[in-house]
Write a structure and sequence with these properties.
Rossmann fold; 7-stranded mixed sheet; 7 helices; globular
Amino acid sequence: MLKRVRSGGDAFGKALIDFHNTGEETISIIRRVEDNNVDEMPSSPYFRAFDEWDPLDRALSAWMEGRVLDIGMGAGRLSLHLQGKGHDVVGVDLSPGALEVSSARGVRDVRQLDILDGILDGEKFRTIALFGHNLGIAGFHENVGSFLELLSRMLTPGGRIVGTQINWDRTDKPEHLGFQEANRRAGRHPVDMTLRIEYGGIEETFSWCLTNQTELVEIAKSVGLAIEAIIDCGGMYSYVLRLPES
């Protein structure tokens, strides 16, 4: 079991349920506990059809093949797209609300799972998807290598891990740079953080981390994953990691 911080209710899932049921935008508050930085997170992007996706996500979907594990599936936008393309998809999320919405929208195989607790026993996938910067599920930078190793054990030989992430070291925003420096002074990785989602009187708190592309290349190679592609878009990037055939 990997180190993590997690407590509270299902604020994220409640926001998705309300949007799904009403069609009216719902806004969650994301509060970074370490410095009280606040962002707003609308629910509607989790429901977008393929032609409304960010171009980076659309491009990355072309790398999907075979049976797919969609980790942190949210409202199921990726799973639904891949099902429509004929893929066998398993969607997992820790949020009961997300699973309720995804199932209602037509995702056929949804499962509640904290992936940090371990693999799906006996099940193998050709592709594992970490859209929405979901490599951050690792929680702490020190966990990223172990998390990738865990995912690798669920891949067939030659299988892929594909996802998006943030080049955190390319920011010039004073609030970002100040947060990173405070983390360094405290002996932490610059972008390890604790996030709190607040919606409808519900709060949930969890650890989250960012991994820039230089770090990811080094970590992936250290656990035996080949770098098949890095798509550098400046502040954001996508990656395709491949497990060797043998």
